[in-house]
Automatic annotation (TrEMBL):
<protein>
    <recommendedName>
        <fullName>Co-chaperone DjlA N-terminal domain-containing protein</fullName>
    </recommendedName>
</protein>
<dbReference type="InterPro" id="IPR029024">
    <property type="entry name" value="TerB-like"/>
</dbReference>
Amino acid sequence: MVTPSNVKNLVKILIGAAWIDGRIQPEERQYLREIAQAKGLANDPEIKPWLYELVPVQPKECYDWVREYLGDRPSLEDCENLIEAISGLIYSDGEVAVEEARLLTELQDIAKPNDSTQPIQTKLLKQIQKLYRRWVDVQT
């Protein structure tokens, strides 16, 4: 469920992602302002200083916001949605800084453990099916 708090945290993450390379590009600035306006946060007292570049966002703050947004056990869908949102911002200026690429890579790494459990579950299910079939065969 998307709550106003989650939307605000997402906008904060996007602002942090724009700052992660030390400066906001003009295209990123435009993108952020459009997003903040669309989400009704352009005049939010917490968001406004970062959005209008009155206060820079440190990379650690951005990563802290990501952890807060995703929580302890993020779903694959949550990670993918966040990656998609950040990618839209990062690619808005046509270039990807090393720090921006690192952020996307870390998000993809967070998503991988959840994704890698699926093959294990599939293997386990197949083993259970084999055991069940053998049991059925023995019973008949």
